[in-house]
């Protein structure tokens, strides 16, 4: 088969650059995501002069608002939610003057025509046509209809050649199972070329997540031991102390597997376990991630009970304060059997990882907020230091702390000073804040900037999203079919259900319980 030069990107960094001009349209502009994340992220990009020279934002939603109302609302949003607050009035004024608003119903073709006229007006007279980014920040059942209407009025023409000028960002969830994700991909691909589609997973924009690849592939010391010969197992944890907050309606239908595993946790597993890509281009990286998911052994229906554990929080305390039971949260069914906690064991059937379990867990209302990847290495083959009181040495663990207390720590054994030859665990700890100050951009800043520049490396490709559903569907469907009889089965403020501990004990292992900022273990 002949190689299309368009597909060939040499090793090294992605071939992207900032466009001269860009219009970013936000569908769902009166919603939470726009005010909490998108506009604050864009303002921070403006502050750091990382936006294109000519840049405008058009908010689109059903609420009745003028441009002025929209600007005022967004000003409040930036003051409240931007990581730097409303730091620079002059930058805000300049940024605010580029914000526009169009009112419309999502199913009304006329509204899309109005929008088109407005943004065509931005193009008028310019030598270089602006990049157009359409951000779908509204309910997922509207993704396909909105894309189809955009296509029908010529707002987002399909571009199969060269670098696409029109891009569409699609928020999660992308489908609710394999079938719906396939159908959504099919409808999206009727209107758009895959290279125009940016499926967002905000975890991929986190600095610490991007650092996984740098840690693995820009250092010579880790890769040689990053395999079944040296690694005993891997634990990936995303523990939250928050409950479902105002999203009970969505969450009660989704549950933790759809909400956290099908996207964020599997992405972390891929970055940890994938092979080195041939370069840092979008497809080179995404090829490796998809290849990894193809190697994950599917958990069949009859193995769900052995390879996965579920839980739902009951009464308890977070930071000393009582919190509501899940079934009493607003918009949650009083007899809900939706899991708010899950743990899974994934096995990867490839040369590198044969026999090394990857344990994934995530839950709401847990003891502590912590997202981390812990690579636990094998014990040394022989305990030479018999005079030591300890029975055994602590295995080396490399912990990549995604959040909070972002950093990387390696524990190893040392000899404490004294006459005896003894061993005691110690830690080498790198902390982002100590090394770089508190300057990390928010995930949405990175991701929006990448999309504006046409770099989709940190976005999810169509095949990955389907593979991820393929792996998670049997767990979700088996749990839907076999109702739990012990919910709620964990106390809010604990580390999850007892079953999860027994699940690990059966494998002769135990969950890490990071206690505090220094990542001490209980
Ligand atoms: C979202 C989930 O995707 O990720 C939320 O829908 C979850 O339920 C959130 O709380 C966690 O993100 P972060 O960045 O706080 O770890």
SSE topology:
Layout (H helix, E strand, L loop, with lengths): L20 E7 L4 H16 L6 E8 L5 H15 L7 H8 L2 E5 L5 H15 L7 E6 L6 H10 L13 E5 L7 H14 L5 E3 L7 H11 L13 E9 L8 H26 L8 H14 L8 H4 E4 L1 E6 L2 E3 L17 E6 L11 E6 L6 E8 L19 E7 L3 E8 L9 E8 H5 L6 H10 L9 H20 L8 E3 L5 H8 L17
Parallel strand pairs: 1-2, 1-4, 2-3, 4-5, 5-6, 7-12, 9-17
Antiparallel strand pairs: 7-13, 8-11, 9-10, 11-12, 13-14, 14-15, 15-16
6-O-phosphono-beta-D-glucopyranose binds next to loops.
Short descriptors:
522 residues, alpha/beta, eight-stranded mixed sheet, six-stranded parallel sheet, 14 helices, 34% helix, globular, binds 6-O-phosphono-beta-D-glucopyranose
Summarize the structure.
By secondary structure, the protein is α/β, with parallel strands linked by helices. Helix content is 34%, strand content 20%.
Q: Can you describe what's shown?
A:
The protein is of the alpha/beta class and 522 residues long. Helices cover 34% and strands 20% of the residues. The strands form three sheets. It has an eight-stranded mixed β-sheet with strand order 8-11-12-7-13-14-15-16, sandwiched between helices. Strands 3-2-1-4-5-6 form a six-stranded parallel β-sheet. A three-stranded mixed β-sheet has the order 10-9-17, with no helix packed on it. A hairpin with a 3-residue loop joins β14 and β15 (407-414). α1 (32-47) packs across α2 (67-81). The longest helix is centred in the middle third of the chain and has 26 residues, at 248-273. It binds 6-O-phosphono-beta-D-glucopyranose. 6-O-phosphono-beta-D-glucopyranose binds next to loops.
């Amino acid at each position: 088969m002949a190689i299309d030069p368009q597909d060939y990107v040499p090793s090294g960094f992605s071939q992207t650059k900032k466009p001269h001009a860009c219009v970013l349209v936000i569908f769902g502009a009166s919603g939470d995501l726009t005010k909490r994340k998108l506009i604050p992220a864009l303002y921070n990009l403006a502050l750091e002069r990382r936006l294109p020279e000519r840049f405008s934002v058009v908010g689109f939603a059903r609420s009745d608002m003028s441009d002025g109302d929209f600007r005022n609302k967004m000003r409040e949003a930036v003051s409240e939610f931007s990581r730097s607050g409303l730091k620079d009035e002059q930058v805000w004024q300049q940024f605010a003057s580029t914000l526009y608003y169009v009112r419309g119903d999502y199913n009304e073709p006329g509204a899309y025509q109005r929008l088109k006229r407005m943004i065509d007006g931005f193009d008028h007279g310019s030598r270089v046509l602006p990049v157009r980014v359409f951000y779908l920040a509204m309910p997922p059942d509207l993704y396909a209809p909105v894309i189809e209407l955009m296509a029908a009025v010529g707002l987002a023409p399909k571009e199969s050649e060269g670098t696409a000028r029109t891009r569409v960002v699609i928020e999660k969830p992308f489908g609710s199972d394999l079938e719906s994700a396939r159908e959504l991909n099919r409808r999206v691909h009727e209107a758009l070329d895959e290279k125009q589609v940016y499926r967002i997973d905000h975890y991929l924009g986190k600095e610490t997540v991007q650092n996984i690849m740098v840690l693995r592939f820009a250092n010579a010391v880790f890769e040689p031991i990053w395999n079944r010969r040296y690694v005993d197992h891997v634990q990936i944890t995303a523990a939250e102390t928050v409950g479902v907050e105002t999203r009970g309606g969505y969450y009660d239908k989704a549950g933790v597997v759809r909400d956290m595993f099908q996207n964020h946790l599997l992405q972390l597993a891929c970055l940890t376990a994938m092979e080195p890509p041939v370069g840092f281009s979008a497809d080179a990286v995404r090829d490796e991630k998809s290849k990894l998911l193809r190697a994950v052994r599917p958990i069949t229906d009859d193995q769900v009970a052995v390879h996965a554990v579920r839980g739902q929080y009951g009464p308890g305390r977070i930071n000393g304060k009582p919190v509501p039971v899940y079934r009493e949260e607003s918009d949650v069914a009083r007899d809900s059997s939706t899991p708010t906690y899950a743990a899974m064991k994934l096995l990867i059937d490839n040369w590198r990882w044969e026999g090394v379990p990857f344990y994934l867990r995530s839950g709401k209302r847990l003891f502590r907020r912590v997202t981390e990847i812990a690579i636990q290495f094998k014990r040394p083959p022989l305990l030479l230091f018999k005079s030591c009181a300890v029975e055994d040495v602590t295995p080396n663990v490399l912990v990549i702390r995604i959040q909070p207390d972002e950093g990387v720590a390696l524990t190893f054994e040392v000899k404490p000073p004294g006459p005896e030859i003894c061993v005691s665990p110690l830690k080498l700890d790198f902390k982002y804040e100590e090394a770089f100050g508190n300057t990390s951009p928010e995930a949405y800043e990175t991701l929006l900037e990448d999309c504006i520049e046409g770099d989709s490396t940190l976005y999810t490709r169509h095949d990955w999203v389907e593979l991820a559903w393929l792996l998670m569907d049997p767990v979700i469907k088996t749990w839907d079919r076999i109702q739990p009889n012990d919910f709620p089965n964990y106390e809010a403020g604990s580390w999850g259900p007892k079953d999860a501990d027994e699940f690990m004990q059966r494998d002769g292992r135990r969950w890490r319980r990071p206690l505090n900022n220094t990542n001490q273990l209980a």
